[in-house]
Amino acid sequence: MMKGEDSEEVEIDLGDPDDNGEEPQTLWKVPVPLDEEENIHTTSQVEISDTKPLINARDPRGINDCLKVAFEDVIAEPVSVRSGDRVWIWSNALFEVSRIWIYRIVTVLLAIPMSVISGLLFATLSCLHIWMVSPGIKYILIGTCWLQNLWDILLDVIVRPFFTSTGRCCGSFSIHLAKE
């Protein structure tokens, strides 16, 4: 089945509510996704891959929930002051279209370079952590093993007996509160 074949379309009516039988204007048509398109990347090798693109769940952890902005969240007219119905409908439609298309244009220009830069950055940091930071910490822990043993001995010989005896001395105190 070809993409777009037998797909339903959503139409947005921009006509006046008082139009008499005229064909309503349609600002744009949005094709509804098909079930077959959701399973494009489902071969046996791709299912076990960590790099499989998340087509439907692009923000599964809800990191960008603050960016769910609708026209009503940005522009709202109170009951006392209102523009014409056509102005409101066209403003809503232009807001949505410009928001979507400008986002798409900017992502085309910036998404791939930012992905490459982020990949290089995370790969470099991972390499440094795996090959330098972790072994360095292990070297320090191995080299200071005698210092850890000395610290344990000092705690066992000096600090623990002091706090144990202080706790036993102070443990016999009791406080009674009485109302007069």
UniProtKB/TrEMBL annotation:
Instruction: Please list the GO biological process terms of this entry.
Output: caveola assembly; cell differentiation; regulation of cytosolic calcium ion concentration
- What are the start and end residues of every segment in region (Disordered)? 1-26
Against Pfam families, the record matches this protein to:
Caveolin (PF01146)
- Parts of the chain that traverse the membrane: 101-131
Main location group: membrane
The places in or outside the cell where this protein is found are: Cell membrane; Golgi apparatus membrane; Membrane, Caveola
Family, according to the entry, reads as follows: Belongs to the caveolin family.
Function recorded in the entry: May act as a scaffolding protein within caveolar membranes. Interacts directly with G-protein alpha subunits and can functionally regulate their activity.
* Protein name stated in the entry: Caveolin
Organism equals: Monopterus albus
Origin organism lineage? Eukaryota, Metazoa, Chordata, Craniata, Vertebrata
